[in-house]
Amino acid sequence: MPCRLTPLIRRAVLSKGRHRQSRRLFATHSNNDEWDIVIVGGGPNGLALASALVASQPIRESLRIALVEAADLDKVRQWTPDSDTYSNRVSSITNASKDFMQKIGCWTHVDRHRTNPIAEMQVWDGVSDSRITFSASDMKHQVNAEIDGVKAIAHMTENLNIQCGLLRNLAERGAVSIIDKVKVSQIVREQKEGGGWPLVHTSDGRVLRTRLLVGADGFNSPVRAYAGIESFGWSYDTRAIVATLFHPPRGLGLHVPNTTAYQRFLPTGPIAFLPLTSTASSLVWSTKPDLAEAISKSDPAVLATMVNAAFRLPEISMRHLHHFLLGETATIDALLEEVRWRERSHDIDPHSAYSTFTSTSQDGIPPGDYDSIPPIVTSIQPGSIASFPIRFNHAESYIGESDEGARTALIGDAAHTIHPLAGQGLNMGLADADALAACVHNAVVLGNDIGSRTALIPYARARYFENHKLLAATDKLHKLYSTTLGPVVWARSVGLEVVNELDSVKEALMMSAGGNSSSSYDPSPANRSNAGDSLWPMAARGVEVLSGTFDTAKLVGKGLGGLAASNVTKLLSSYAKR
Amino acid sequence: MRLQGTSKHCALVIAGVRRSRRPLPQHPRHSSTSTINADEISHFSRLSSQWWDERGEFALLHKMNPVRVQFVRGKLLEAARDDAVSGHEELEIERNDNAGRTLDGLDVLDVGCGGGLLSESLSRLGARTVGVDASASNIAIASMHASLDPWFSNATPSSSTPQRKYLEYRHASAEDLVQEPKRFDVVCSMEVLEHVDNPAGFLRSCAELVKPGGHLFLSTISRTPLSYLLTIFAAEQALRLVAPGTHTYNKFVKPSELVDFFCKPVSSSESKPWITRLYDGSPTRREAEVRGIVYVPWKGEWMLAPRGAPGATACNYLFWVRKPLDC
Questions:
Q1: Does A428 lie in the same domain as A472?
Q2: Which range has the top average pLDDT, A46-50, A327-331, B312-316?
Q3: With contacts defined as CB-CB under 8 Å, which chain A residues touch B123?
Q4: d(CA B246, CA B234)
Q5: Best of A62, A63, A456 to disrupt the B interface by mutation (most B CBs within 10 Å)?
């Protein structure tokens, strides 16, 4: 229920004689639209912040909130997808994120038929094949992981589903003015003695003067530029290919639910298979830009074949297929022939799940190892193949530090861009929205100016380090798995297997990928659960062990030989004993 | 003339501070008829342009403000609930509080408002707030800052303007206001008492401005070795977090001295004291309360110490006392 406000010219009403001379009267404001919060960006993060804000009664009753979005949000509101096609932009919603959406009242507006629980995750090393399995049943501390009797690590759903649910929730609350199909043309600082407020100029000629300006406006955030907040980061030499995959039901006649996510770390980048329904799943494949480009230009059958191979063939064959695909003769038939030849030469049993060619021909009886890899992809949803560059990026601050950047805050991708391998991008943005809304709530209750640095600092304090840990851990994992150097592969494989043995560390790693769900919605910080906090250091430690072995193993590779190797062994075995 | 400064570092709380108390000085230390100290006024006038720099001279005060409001809000809610004669009234209190209008309809005076940090907050919570300060430049800064905020502007409310809050600043002293008929539900004077010349006279003026049944809130610094160490030696001299000369040790006031002051009738026109009983030196919850307020450097924030925390009132503290309905 967007409410459109026309600019009103307000007339100054001079007070009459009832004011004594010694009293100061405050100047009237110009004809700007006056707002308490303007959120730039109507993606899931911006909408989640708006929803979280108006879920608080003091905020709802006292603040005027606007959200500006360049796109037409009616299209999202009226989202009526075909029941058997899926958007290629999907996210894994952790239990913490799901609880947050429940708390702000939007989870009920999410189309539940288009969410799918992940009950298990299998992650393995593309070079050594050592593997970790995360299962929802290992989650001892999760109180709220169950929906409809299914215990889940996380839920897969399309970003559009989240966005639509948030918009419906906002329409029901009606307390946020959504200004869509309007671009932000310019943000300037009002020139006033004592510190001007941000003025947001829009493409339809309005000027929104705001107490607090929130940038939920993505990687190239105009709000971040206005606030003068530097960000640091780099592009990985990697692109992520996304697509919607169709496949037969898992386990064929056994009708095993499609609730396992698979991820294989290849030296070119991780490939992930994320279940959406019993016969559809989503692909996120981080790989070299030239390969991503070649695949995007090819017949979709080429991608299907490559995906099947990427979960099955040994790494050395994947390297050859990579070169093959970049060569002149890369037709689908030639590719299939190449894969067939490689399966034979690797001695892959044609009746095992690791064969691309025979699994589907079986009648109702799956191969015994069917659950260790994803089902065979038979086709790709037309038009669903896309790719995007992968970046690491972190703003120096989440709130404007200088006078020029006063009264600004950043959330989501405007603040941080993460490698998709841990599936945490959207979850981090939702956690930002949660923390910022709680911070605004506390300021309102104490009569504080919500745009002031004093009011906003708790937000930065709550999120900056948390996000940084996740960004750094993900970055390290990417780099750790980008090598085929023998000692590193050996060490990281031992690392993974050690992790698999240690229940507590495993659980911590799972928290990082699946989130914790114990935080109850209570806007007051004192009552916010810290369960996630205590688990994080454990997850971080797990990654440290991995990256530590990486560094040590690099030394080994450089010729320090057996001495260092025995130290690694000692290190790892002592860790295992602990 | 609110005094800034407020001891920046009160994190260390030491129990068992020397207990010596003296009556509040009854006579001006200087031969002036008001309680205002001219040196103090000029000190703060010089600093006035920095009032709203949240990372500058007054950074610690900005951080302290939410905690002061928390105390005021909590105490007023507690008293309102105690007073409520019906469930309906209680509901009304809850409703206003839930809507962020906890102080709706109260007449509130902020004596020594400085740049208006507290006045703005109280006004946002719905109070009809008057801020007074003996420094004209403070009033100018406070007014200018409020003029930036549409909540305090005097434009006609309309669908595109925010709700209007009442906030008024005057260059005046508490003694000036006593001469006028207007009295207030709540009088606050935060970080002021340690800067006036005649604290007993100043308190009498503040007390006089409170309506019967109304509330007086003070915050100040106790006179202990700890407070000297933190507010003067550390904050002013060693760390220069606060402008040197902001505080004078012998002007600090102990909580027990404030309590003693209100155990006697405040003025000759009042027949009974505001505090009628003490238990082990402490007043009852419905008459008065002393709460320590402690800076926690590693968190970078102030904290309201729990009631009765040992040693917590040895440096910065908040004081609340209620005027009897029939005094």
A1: yes
A2: A46-50
A3: 447
A4: 12
A5: A62
